[in-house]
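Task 17 of the worksheet. Students: predict the tertiary structure of the chain below and write it out as structure tokens. Keep your answer in the requested format; marks are given for formatting as well as content.
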Amino acid sequence: MGIGPCMLDIAGYSLTAEDETRLRHELVGGVILFARNYESPGQLAQLTASIHALRTPPLLIAVDHEGGRVQRFVDGFTRIPAMRELGHIWDGNPRRAKHLAQQVGYVLAAELRACGVDFSFTPVLDIDFGISKVIGNRAFHSEPQAIAELAHSLLLGLKQSGMSTVGKHFPGHGYVQADSHLEIPIDDRSYTDIELCDLIPFRQMVNYGMTAVMPAHVIYPKVDKHPAGFSKIWLKDILRGELGFNGCIFSDDLSMEGATVAGGILQRAEAALQAGCDMVLVCNQPSLADELLAGLKWVMPATSKARLAQMRGRHQTNSLVQFHEEADFMKAVHEIATIGPGTAELPFS
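Model answer:
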């Protein structure tokens, strides 16, 4: 059995019989973990091993683990500062900021990989316009070039520890105030305005070898009436055509309010897949996940299978305990501790 186009969540610290039934479904290809799934590094390693053992090829395991207020695993993990803290350092010392960004990527990925997680949905490439309620200090900076440089350094660190990169939220979520978890944001700017600002980090990260992209649940009516994650114009014409991106496209969570414009859960998934997504996420709504698995008809294209295969984590050799005995790793941890807090207000689990 190959992996399918759906990524789902699970209930708790270990797999329930209900979880296993869902995850064995042919339409499932991945699992996203949340804070509710984490108790300790040892428990997490057991959980990921049990998920990987369910299927051949193994399901992908992902997490939103960016740092700052979006860090799912805390106790036993290095506290990663908000990416805006790196932007503050950039303002005075770009070279040091880039070095620290690479150290952050290295540690973040090493710890997740040591516990069996394949990848994190990071980095955030949105621009901090000082407007967005949900982006805020998750963004590296207000300058596109600073974002591109810092994200590239983070990419190098992630790659060093065997982890792929997922740039989000294409083509940019930073200009709208509304939170797409709760509302349907609308960005009224022209394509030219977006291209000359928000698209710069995405375009450069494509050139740097970014592995995957997650589009925003934002409507840009001067480009398309559909949110970017349901838009062939944004995903096929612009992301793949104009920017030349050949990697994986993950939908944002289809249970979010910003996705409801596409209809019920089946219509949302079909619209996202037809628009160009390789995998769709449904989180925190088990009934919607069951409805999706019962009704979705989708044959995975060979190209999607190949792109998703690139998301598998590589060279997982050390345990977390072993990493904490390595001089280079601990040097990176100590350097990260100098960056600044930026960790207040850990969010939804």
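Marker's comment: Residues 118 and 312 are 5 Å apart (CA to CA). The two ends are 31 Å apart (CA to CA).
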